[in-house]
Specification:
single chain, alpha/beta, Arc Repressor Mutant, subunit A, seven-stranded mixed beta sheet, two-stranded antiparallel sheet
């Protein structure tokens, strides 16, 4: 079946239009190929054929996925309803309902960065189940088949799992403005901007610390990397959720170390103050981890590619 293009140059193959719409909805050639049951090379060929017929490019190619150009958004808006209605009129039926995609990782990163980015897939029919937890148990569960995709805060050991770098987290030493002023006024002989040597870490160790856990995993790493000394402090408050730590520190409970992505807006607005700005801040790389081989569930590829695209934009 064919349809007229908008340029008086004859008829367009509906297969080209369906392929274009799948790429537009998925944001990825690979994901669209999985959805359509085609090879990626076929999807690429069909998309180029449509672009030649229309006389313009439809997508900007990126390292991970594609971004629709303005004309492509307009074209997709015009095509979506007619093509969806045509599928109903011709008796076409979607394939079997895919199983939910099992995604797991740190609660803060998933909630802050990824869940919103994955919402369009859910609106298009992808079912998603999100679990949270620490990296080591989640990787063991992935090996056991309980998850499809895991966001890990460290690269898994061995060759059983496939890991690709996803994002770099930079850690920052922060406190509420009133607490920072107290620190500079009472605990240190000079302004924070002028502190050198070990005066700052020694002063902070005497003041309330808000931490993720009793053993201070994030703060200890910051001390070792930035100050080159062992942290001698016990937490005044522990919260096993970085968003809870942020809330406590904003309320003046003390000081802490957080990933910068979680408190970027608060630092920009002045609600939170940076206590130290080292030349070489500690950075942790997050990984997107899967089991080897292609999943039988095509929606896993859709979620995988959307995660990569979301983090690239972020």
């Amino acid at each position: 079946m064919d349809a007229h293009d908008g340029h008086g140059s004859g008829l367009l193959d509906l297969n080209l239009l369906r392929t274009f719409l799948a790429v537009h909805r998925c944001g990825s050639l690979t994901a669209a190929a999985h959805q359509l049951g085609l090879s990626q090379s076929t999807v690429t060929t069909q998309l180029r054929a449509l672009e030649r017929r229309l006389g313009r490019e439809l997508f900007a190619r990126r390292a991970r996925g594609v971004t629709p150009l303005p004309y492509a958004d307009e074209f997709a808006a015009q095509l979506s309803a007619p093509l969806d209605q045509l599928a109903v009129f011709t008796g076409e039926r979607p394939g079997p309902v895919a199983a939910p995609v099992q995604l797991a990782g740190p609660a803060e990163f998933l909630s802050t960065v990824l869940v919103g980015a994955l919402a369009p897939l859910v609106a298009d029919g992808v079912r998603l189940r999100v679990s949270t937890g620490l990296t080591d148990p989640l990787l063991e569960e992935l090996r056991a088949g309980q998850h499809d995709l895991v966001i890990a805060t460290q690269r898994p050991r061995g060759r059983v799992l496939h890991a690709e770098p996803l994002a770099d987290e930079e850690f920052v030493l922060v406190a509420a403005p009133l607490f920072a002023e107290r620190l500079a006024g009472r605990e240190l002989p000079q302004a924070l901007e002028q502190v050198a040597g070990r005066e700052l870490p020694q002063a902070l160790e005497r003041l309330p610390l808000v931490s993720y856990a009793e053993d201070l995993p994030i703060v200890r790493r910051y001390w070792r990397h930035v100050f080159g000394v062992r942290l001698q402090a016990r937490p005044a408050l522990t919260v096993p959720d970085l968003r809870g730590i942020l809330a406590a520190v904003l309320a003046g409970a003390g000081w802490t170390v957080l990933p910068s992505y979680l408190c970027r807006a608060e630092l920009a607005s002045g609600a939170l103050r940076l206590l130290h700005q080292p030349d070489d801040p500690p950075i942790n790389t997050a990984f997107l981890v899967t089991r080897p081989g292609q999943s039988a569930n095509p929606h896993v590829a859709l979620v995988h590619d959307r995660i990569l695209a979301a983090v690239e934009d972020w």
